[in-house]
Amino acid sequence: MTDEFRKPGARKVGQVKEVTSLANPIIKDIKALSNKKDREAAGIFMAEGLKLVIDALELGWEIRTLIYAKAAKAKPLVEQVATRTVANGGLVLEVSEKVLSSVTRRDNPQMVVGIFAQRWKRLEDLVPAKDDTIVALDRVRDPGNLGTIIRTADAAGASAVILVGDCTDAFSLETVRATMGSVFAIPVVKCSAEEFLVWQKRSGVNVVATHLAGAVDYRTADYKSKPVVILMGNEQSGLPDNLAKAANRTVRIPQQGRADSLNLAVATAVMLFEARRHLLTLEDRT
Fold it and tell me: What cellular component GO annotations does this protein have (predicted)?
């Protein structure tokens, strides 16, 4: 253990560090993870909740620090996760609720928080198989939308989520919360629009894009002859011309009410499960 952990506000308790001060340097470093720049520089992120931490460990993610509230100390699952964290060379911090609220920026935080190493899949390593469905998002800005889409992609059996251009961070606390743990289960890629277009040609995928100018009903698109990429545009401006023109098919989701558009996460869910329906129909015939 470094001397840093023995500064005022932290004291050694076996293999666990008890932290009560908001001024503790470790706590300051963890709170800095609320900033994208600091997350990227450190290559780590925060996941809140015992279930998320257990899911991440079961899926082989590297835990750097485990933080839990004193009230959770005696819970068997918390003790097991703490033991596993120490065995993997990570830190374990027992903190007050005041410290935990400060770290999570919530008045009623979950009792357990894990700090994990970020994990990105490289675009060049993404080689889709025939029945794969991939979601590509152009400049998605809302962390709640991104987290919900990652969760939905996981539920629909998608093989990856590609973030194209200047997107919100997949590893922000808000996004990770909205994924409900699916961020640990589905590969996430980030790339520029130019890189995406090169990969599209090289990989031979079938890109089905939603677009205001789409003349084809989304239910009639081809989702099963090749690996399909469902391409969705920015919440406000939709897809830019270069991505829309490069798509194999641009489609629309028919609407009847007064609303002129769907929420991005809802529209993506509609597209994902339509693609899934086509694949299930194909499986039933074979």
Answer: cytoplasm
